[in-house]
Amino acid sequence: MLSKTCEYALRAMIYIAQQSKDGSTVNIKEISEKINSPELFIAKILQGLSRQGFLQSAKGRYGGFYISDQAAKFSLADIVEAIDGDKMFHGCGLGLAFCSESNPCPIHNEYKEARDQLYKIYGKVTLSRFRNEDVDEVLQLKRG
Q1: Residue 4 CB coordination number (10 Å)
Q2: What is the pTM for the complete model shown?
Q3: What SS3 class is residue 66?
Q4: Contact present, 57 and 47 (Cβ < 8 Å)
Q5: Strand runs (DSSP E) across the chain, as ranges?
Q6: Per-residue pLDDT tens for 51-76?
Q7: Got the DSSP string for 4-46?
Q8: What is the Cα–Cα distance from 9 to 23, expressed in whole angstroms?
């Protein structure tokens, strides 16, 4: 359902949110290692998200990426829509262009219910959740 780009983006943003809660930056090599992604690919993804205001970057020897308190208000749904568009939350389960309430596909009602539930889950979780001081658990962000 999510593109590979979006999966990497979500994992990277969660990791950066967790690591930059004290204002420090996280370099691309560390991010790549911690989420098990190709370094150049994740760098390109994060540069795009930075241009869109989802995170900030700092240049120089101690540069890297960080998420400001303001950017931490973005939800995972915001990131999904920035990377993959809104098709996951608003598209047809069969990929049909004509599917709508007035002209439903064969699985419209069931898919709409699942799609709405996914939007609720991704929309409720903001990056600030991972900056919380009470989060002591180590988040599993690598694919097995």
Answers
A1: 10
A2: 0.87
A3: strand
A4: yes
A5: 56-58, 64-66
A6: 999 999 988 777 899 999 999 999 99
A7: HHHHHHHHHHHHHHHHTTTS--B-HHHHHHHHT--HHHHHHHH
A8: 20
